[in-house]
Automatic annotation (TrEMBL):
One of its GO terms (cellular component) is membrane. The keyword Transmembrane helix applies. PANTHER family: PROTEIN COFACTOR ASSEMBLY OF COMPLEX C SUBUNIT B CCB3, CHLOROPLASTIC-RELATED, YLMG HOMOLOG PROTEIN 2, CHLOROPLASTIC. It comes from Tumebacillus flagellatus. Pfam families: CCB3_YggT. This is Cell division protein. The keyword Transmembrane applies. The chain crosses the membrane at residues 14-36, 57-79. Belongs to the YggT family. The lineage of its organism: Bacteria, Bacillati, Bacillota, Bacilli, Bacillales.
Amino acid sequence: MVVAAYYIMKVMDIYYYVLFASIILTWIPDIQRTIVGRILYRITEPYLGIFRRFIPAVRLGGGYMDFSPIVALFVWRVFVENGVRWLLLKALGLA
């Protein structure tokens, strides 16, 4: 069970970096039309889409700035990962 908990936390950590990469790659023009862009979009959009529905983009100058990915990363790292870690520790009898 401890090994499974370790791998669950590693997968969650990897997903955090996939989210981060997806957000960074949105700054590169035309990247979302590549195979990498489409794969990252399919992997991350179900999670990021939740935040985009509730946090509108802010108008800055001639364009818009979407702050929802920043909030999504924060929520993932602070609440989701820590919540899962706590549940795993509880299941192992360590919390």
